[in-house]
Description:
Structural class: alpha+beta
Number of strands: 7
Distance between the termini: 67 Å
Shape: flat
Helix content: 25-40%
Number of domains: 2
Oligomer: single chain
Number of helices: 3
Strand order of the largest sheet: 1-2-3-4-5-6-7
CATH architecture of the largest domain: Roll
Low-confidence stretches: none
Radius of gyration: 23 Å
Mean pLDDT: 86
Strand content: 25-35%
CATH topology of the largest domain: Nuclear Transport Factor 2, Chain: A
Amino acid sequence: MKNTFLxxxxxxxxxxGAQAQTKKKAVTAKVNVPESVDASFKTNxxxxxxxxxxxxxxxxxxxxxxNADSRTQVSEFxxxxxxxxxxxxxxxxTPLPENITTAVQTKYAGSTINELEKVEIAGMAPYYRVxxxxxxxxxxxxxxxxxxxxxxx
Length: 153
């Protein structure tokens, strides 16, 4: 009888614990974008499709959209409409910029590019963030400039 009771209690505790671990879908509030931000966005990204707006922890407005090449872009603007930065994500199954693939294959022969994104920040030269798996199966992240040279930030 004691064993049965303990078994039932243990089962209930495990069930309750498992239910507590399920993720609840976060509800995102609709972001009202100021006209200055919207105008700046439309000036910089006239061909943007299906843009979705959010607000980050710094108070900047962030637009996620597809560009003319069907690449996902995330662009950030401050509340007055000044562009802060843009990240463009490349699909590694499609042809990547030749200077980047050449640089990676030269420095890390036999490696595979897993992720590639171009980062443009106001006041800085654009750069590429490359996540790759080397020939000896190590994961590595490198930063390359537009010419394909490694840089440190």
